[in-house]
């Protein structure tokens, strides 16, 4: 089954990180991704820029409304995601628990539709 | 005539099962037999429902599909059995019907080939057989089912609902009534839960050894929660809802049997300990409420009303668990309960032993509630003063703030120490905090008694501790 692993984290902490800390975090992610790729899990994934670069778009009555900022102003923001192929939820939980920021933030694991236009 | 509800006779001759119908001699079924059919069906569901569901999930690899088709089969059985008489092998009939429904649905959805190829490959059996399977030939996969239902990815309420619905013998209506929620709410909860199992990919298997202890703990917590829900309600009038407790005991038995059958002996002591604990608690049930439905404290219970047979079973279970030499929290709690049931009276209870057991329990799984109980036991073993001292350390624990039993325990120790005025204010606090009507009535009664003891001249110095 394909799972999306949405990586939520406290951005203030990330912003306050020193250059060395940042490099360390990147190295951790690289190692994790390498390992998961070798195990055949990784199907995709991206790192997102901070939520202060986000733009929210809504169309109401044919009018496009644009606002500055993320959809939800919460302490923990979506910072990136992976698409991981796993046998079942137990394996997905195991994989998610190894995402480096799982120890400080939260990983939301969501199953992905096999056929996006199917039932 | 009422059909036997405890044992469905299975045909000794397997060929008998090949006939889809073996009508009884008077195969012209009367409409009054509709009730009998219902009773027989309910009994088959109780007896074999979990096993059937587990086998179907195993066969089709889809929890939601299996559950839906089994429900369809139950509905079809009511109709078919009323019109054509009971099949010789009702469980086999249900299995065949549910399986055919599943095949139909998959065929319509165009996914049959994929699913069945996979299943046939996995299980090395031919995908479709026309014979109703005999119960012995239906593999018992309920342990996997228990772990699926109690998966931590489901909320605790969903875990409880799903476990009761799929492994228990209560109907949706009965479960809803026991939890004091509308049937529709419970039904909705079950629908959502089984959908999540299917869609999120919650596996149907016994967890691997690294996860097994943690996951088994979750299973036992669900069973014990069901028991406690039946033993003492958190709110509302019905303090004792025996059905749920009985159901939890039955689930506890099933769990022990399945762990045993799977050779998971390392996990047996605690599972048996849980069973012992539930039975020992349950053996005191007949004395917990008086004829007016009022709560009777352990101290005041008529011990001759305790269920001796259940008590004996509980003590046997405890001995069996302890003999395995792998102590754990459920066994210790059962041991505490055993000290109580063995005592001739509250006063003659071996309180130092109970203090020692609570100390051991607190070391294994520290909890403010355990410390509270320990303080009460200290009060009995060494006098109310020591009990109050032990309680003092708990007064500031935030998790006990607003916990009525803390104030009730304090009030009891204070009244034993002869400090009636302080006892009264502690009972008043407990009364403010409780949401349980029967508990509230008990606190009011104690308040009245304390007020009377004051006016009848028993001053603070000559209190109940004498």
- What's the helix-strand series of chain A? EHHEEEEHE
How many helical stretches of chain B?
Answer: 19
Task: Count all strands of chain B and give the number.
Answer: 0
- Which CATH architecture of the domain at 28-127 in chain B? Orthogonal Bundle
Question: Into which percentage range does the β-strand content of chain B fall?
Answer: under 5%
Morphology call of chain A: flat
How would you state the average pLDDT of chain B, rounded?
83
* Number of beta-strand segments of chain A: 6
Radius of gyration of chain A: 16 Å
Brief write-up:
Chain A is α+β, with helices and mostly antiparallel strands and 119 residues long. Chain A has helices at 11-16, 19-38, 89-96; strands spanning 2-10, 42-47, 55-60, 63-68, 76-85, 106-111. Chain A has one domain (2-111): Alpha-Beta Plaits (2-Layer Sandwich).
Written overview of the protein:
The complex is a heterodimer of chains A (about 120) and B (about 475). By secondary structure, chain A is of the alpha+beta class. Chain A has helices spanning about 10-15, 20-40, 90-95, and strands at about 1-10, 40-45, 55-60, 65-70, 75-85, 105-110. Chain A is flat. Chain A starts with a strand and ends in an 8-residue tail after the last strand. Chain B has a domain at about 30-125: Rna Polymerase Sigma Factor, Chain: A. Helix content of chain B is about 65%, strand content about 0%. The model of chain B is unreliable at about 1-30, about 120-130, about 235 and about 460-465 (pLDDT under 50).
